[in-house]
Amino acid sequence: MGAPAVAEASEGRYNPAKSLNPQILYLEEIPAMAIQRTFSIIKPDATRRNLTGKVVARLEEAGLRVVAQRRIQMTRAQAEGFYAVHKERPFFSSLCDFMTSGPVVVQVLEGENAVEKNREVMGATDPAKAAPGTIRAEFAESIEANSAHGSDSQENAAIEIAYFFSQVDIVG
Ligand code: ADP
Ligand code: MG
User: Active site includes 149?
Assistant: First the structure.
């Protein structure tokens, strides 16, 4: 067995025509694992009703792992910066009022396809449209006070994680 065949196999590009080593054939059968990190917030409506543990349980039951977590009181500036993408929307000011109305729990979640998985477990923004069993369907009070935030892409996850956490805060 030559080194190039091993390297190709570990990268999932094993080509049987290039190697006679049958022991590494199985590598082609293993689906690609996409371990990601995403950013999550347990919003003030949920912390106020003592639902922090229940929300975390939903995330953990879905296979997501909490690798960083902090309970904070968001400042107005932090909320406005975090939701800057929505600053032209009619609900922006009310959203920032809501997000600073009580403690929130900011957290980093890790797992396979974590960004999409977290969005799936949270459900649609509007709890009336959220699938049964999702966090928002179960716990949200309204389209604004909807219990949880989750990054919508890997790119935004990285930005949002860095907004609240430094590398040393994240222990996977
Ligand atoms: P999501 O949190 O599902 O990604 P958005 O990014 O569109 O949803 O909106 C960010 C947050 O702004 C929502 O989670 C919710 O708290 C609030 N929000 C969204 N749409 C409305 C609305 N029409 N009225 C009031 N608040 C809203
Ligand atoms: Mg969003």
Answer: yes
